[in-house]
Amino acid sequence: MPVPEVLRLYGRTDVLTAVGDQQPPTSTPAWNAATRHRNVTRTITLHYTHGWVAGNWQAPATDWYGATFNIDLDGTLFQCEEMIVRTNHVGGAPDFSGQYSFVNLTSIGVELARFGKIQQGPALYSVNGYPGIDFQTVTTFPDECNYSTHPGSKTGGTRRYKLGKINGGTVLQSTSASRSYYYIKVATFDDERNDNRATYPLDVLFTEEQYQTLVKWAKCMCEMNRIPKAFLLHPATGVEQPWIDVQDLIELNTPAVLQNKERVRSFQGIIGHNNIQADRSDPGASMDFYRLKRGVSDEWWYPVNLDDTTRALNYLETARSADYIAMTAYNVASRRVDYFTECEGTGGGYFPVGLNRLWHGGIHLPSGENARPVYAMANGRIVAARVVNGLVQGVEPRYSRCFVLVRHEVHVREDANREGEIDYGADSTETVYSLYMHLRPQVIARSDAGAAVVDYAAHPDWLNHYFIDHPTDQAPDNGDIFYPDQTVLLSDLVGHSGTYITGMDATGPVYGPTVHVEVFTTADVSRFADSPWVDAANRMEDTTEDLVCDLPALDDWLQGRGYPPITQVDVRTAVSDLRQVAVRFRSEWSLQTREQLTQTIVVGQPAVEVALTQALTNEQWEANIRPLCFHTDMQGVATEAVIGPFLGDSHVWHLHPLVFMQWMNERVARHEQILRSQDKTRGQVTSTIAVENGYVVRFVNPVPSVAPPQGYAEVRWNDNLYEVTVDRLCDLTALAAAPQQTTRFRMRLLDALEMINDRQHGVTVLLSHVAVEVNALSARAGRHLAGNAVDVRPGNGTTVAAWYEFIQTVRRVVTYLNNREGVGSVEMEMLQDADGATRPQVDATANSLEWLTRLLAATAATDAQLTAVAPEFATLQAELGQMRLHLHAP
């Protein structure tokens, strides 16, 4: 298969893309033969290049050595070989060689560009193993390292990374006169992450751009290959220790060594080269494994700590290195009751109804006397924020209107083919938002030149990165909403709790440190698998434009559980039962006028219903409520490409943040347990087909797994498992009558089907080897009967977009097979279905030829040539569903 291959993440193929890099020459013996394909993929292995830039593969003798992927300093992902092909990237000696060798057979490797061990001398810093490659400290340095002119730099544009986005470390510059443009950052790692700390306490730091790519790549590899998102455990403590070296991992020179070797060999998850090979230290002490753990996870964590502790997220914070190495997960289920107690106290801010009988889409988490750090509940992107209060009616408001809005892509459905596993496909991916409102305002400093001052001690990383990318943008200083579009990882700091109402006393509202946390979506929550909201009784919709809770369904729900109706109930007594409810109503952040709030409002204790105009003057509305309505302010300014569907829909489903978190984490735990328990240690598979002279000629074992037409077992041959079922290769009727019925199908077409089916669009097989009585249906029947043809369509529909992506894949596959087998080994042709007397056979038509011409010429699914209607092709669009691609192997 040509590289780069399609990489799927969040159900999409445009989130992570690779650049094709140098591949082994065709003269390399049997490089792409079936014997070089991995039987299973159990791990991904991390390396560093110990060089200036992303490296090339090496070719001693007749073999090639290197990882499948490389990540350059600027975050560019290079793919050097097909993902299914075994590559030599881990030696394993002396502990994991011979009978214990396993990594090259079962792992996909990635190399990250950087130097490794470095020593500080009297005047210079020297790179271990490279005499003459030295670095020096500098007092001034550029904002970015531009290494585009480096002799080993990959071609294809500018290569640069931003030094300021690496939070911490010491900047060093190359002493080479010809490479003075090259800068690195180093830091000291004097703890158990660094097994060589006595000799090499310093380690070179990876770039922010590399981490951004690595997190996406690791998540993608785990999901595409059904690899658990897990790290190796310390044999003595049983806790995750991804930095552990091989001698400690197998407890060398102890009676447990052989048992530990077997345990490591059967491990499924993420490993480092140093875990397996004694003379290697990559990916190194500076690999931020905690960041990687959080970044690949689908879990949701608590947004605050209920005490005054902070999370050890900074891998360079020496004083808290032990806390950091613990890689704590802040989602312990037993703590959930404490969080419910905190948000359902007497201070107000209840979900989903306030004491004033108005809808309230989130929860309030008061933080006592002090501001507390607020953390992202899950991986996502910060799409909108306000970080300075600004002035309201000419004065600083008493409350905080600062907020951060995070957009998450969440997989909400179960895999239809694997019970209990999460479906990572496009149809399962929905946009969910988390909102953190009433955050403490930031204090932003500016340089004399007007650039925002980057200060990691004062601001969250995401805000500093925004300042680096947009140094002169004044919107954050002015209290305006801005649209960072910055990645935020699970448990990354988003801000600190600010000031809002935490209670009432005789004089009115009491203000104190708190944060409003909200989880909402525009998606259909009834499709969130195994969630409380699948039950229609737990879903309510208020389609009105105001926020008053006057739904008859809510009254029915309350009274059905023994409560008074909403106009009489003490909300505080019902909130614990209301946790499971999802309510779709107008977001409180989308109001435009006071009248949209409600016409009447409940105030006081005991509750009294009064007209809104009596309880809330227009001046109070303008001063206290309208300034919070950020959704209103985004209209006409923000873009849906960044914000997502919430921008155009003010009515959204509101979910209790802690219940949503519980639902997600239970699904993730179940999924991960299934993957960790799966058997990926089997030996050679039992073939289900016999191959002679390049053709599948018969089925050597009974193959139907269920009665037709539901489907048959997948094709297995010569230690390979094809994700193509047997019924796609044969006369289905004959196979149903006799499971070992002979057939005839070209192996190179089986390879083509496998490669096409491996993409997100999948493949639908319309006609392969056929029986004599149906030959007349196709003008190409002779090819099918000889086993030299197959007719296919996209597996995900016959829209223009589906066909465009499908053709791109098929064209790459045909090119690859023609390179491997020889020019003309596989040809493609567009045919049109039979249509009664006017077209009695499947055959080529003027419209089918026109469609193929247009699809091959198009550069995007939206090209005008794919949508234009010419007079001579008036029926072209209507006949797209009748088209089929005919692959022929002469």
Keywords:
single chain, 890 residues, alpha+beta, nine-stranded mixed sheet, six-stranded mixed sheet, 21% helix, 20% strand, globular
What does this structure look like?
With 890 residues, the chain is of the alpha+beta class. It is built from 21 helices and 38 strands. The strands form ten sheets. Strands 15, 17, 18, 19, 20, 24, 25, 26 and 29 form a nine-stranded mixed β-sheet that branches. Strands 1-4-3-5-2-14 form a six-stranded mixed β-sheet. Strand 7 and strand 8 form a beta hairpin. Helix 2 crosses helix 5 and helix 17 packs across helix 19. The longest helix is centred in the last third of the chain and has 22 residues.
Number of E strands: 38
**Whole-angstrom Rg:** 31 Å
- Compute the average pLDDT: 87
The separation of the N and C termini measures 20 Å
As a percent range, the share of strand residues is 15-25%
Which structural class should the secondary elements be placed in?
alpha+beta
Q: Which range best describes the helical content: under 10%, 10-25%, 25-40%, 40-55%, 55-70% or over 70%?
A: 10-25%
**Tally of DSSP helical segments:** 21
Shape descriptor: globular
